[in-house]
Each structure stands twice: as C-alpha cells, then as structure tokens.
Design brief:
Keywords: Coiled coil. The protein is α/β, with parallel strands linked by helices. The chain contains nine helices and four strands. Strands 1-2-3-4 form a four-stranded parallel sheet, sandwiched between helices.
Length: about 150
C-alpha cells in the first residue's frame, strides 16, 4: 500500500469499533522497550494488535516469540514511517500490517461554550474574560461559528 492509498483505503477505522468487533489487543507505550515489556500481556488467541509505535526488527522478533498474531494495526503516521522491507517480510509470513486512523489530541468543548456566549451577544473579549479561555482560541471559534451561521 503506498502513501497515497493510506488515507483513502477502507482500512482506516475507529480503534474502539475494531476492538469491539474483532479480538484486538491495544498496546501503548512511551518507548519500544516499554512496549516489548508489555508484550507479556498478549495471549495466543489475539487475532490482531494495535501498537502505537512504528515496527522495528527487535519488536517484531519479540512479538513473534510471544504470540501468533494475524494482523497488526498502526497509526497512519507510524505506518508511513515503517520500513517497507519489514512490511513485506511480515506479509510473506502471513501477517498483515494495516494503518488505522485514531483520534488525536484532547477533545475540548470550547466551541460549545463560545456558542452559548455568542447567543447572549457577548464579544470575543467578554467571552475570554468570563471563561478564561485564550482570546485567540475564542476568536478562532467565534468567527468560524459566525461564518457558519450566515
């Protein structure tokens, strides 16, 4: 799968939906070493795993020693950076590596808060003073909401 097809493929799903429909284990760690330590949590029945790090030779070796996984899901950004030879080698032994679009960042309710104050005819400066939200953030949402209302 080339870089252009990554965003357009049907493979990109929500991680939570995948975990519900398939037997997928989610492994997250801050480093490859921590991830290797967490591999002990896997069992032989895992159909697939989600890993938040790009695949390395050492990680794959450790993974194959612990379980017989059929599918590996990576964030799109990590998938693009994974060595193509590693992806091809895994495909040859019957392991599919797929990119997965995941939610990023922390969701905020700034837009909702700003919209409520807009309905009360407050200016961006007034909203910033009342809520403590950065003025630039308020202006961004304020004018975007105002444009969508017209």
């Amino acid at each position: 799968m080339n870089d252009n097809n990554v965003e357009n493929s049907g493979v990109l799903n929500d991680l939570e939906n995948l975990k519900k429909t398939l037997n997928i284990k989610e492994l997250r760690a801050d480093s490859i070493e921590d991830l290797i330590d967490k591999l002990d949590e896997l069992n032989d029945e895992e159909e697939g795993i989600y890993i938040n790090k790009e695949l390395t030779k050492s990680l794959i070796i450790e993974l194959l020693e612990v379980c017989e996984v059929e599918e590996i899901y990576l964030p799109v950004s990590k998938y693009k950076r994974t060595n193509k030879k590693i992806l091809e080698a895994l495909e040859e032994i019957g392991i599919t590596v797929k990119p997965l679009k995941t939610a990023t960042g922390r969701p905020t309710n700034n837009k909702t808060i700003i919209k409520q104050h807009m309905e009360q005819s407050k200016t961006p400066k007034e909203i910033a003073k009342i809520t403590g939200i950065n003025l630039k953030t308020i202006e961004y949402h304020y004018y975007k909401l105002k444009k969508s209302m017209n």
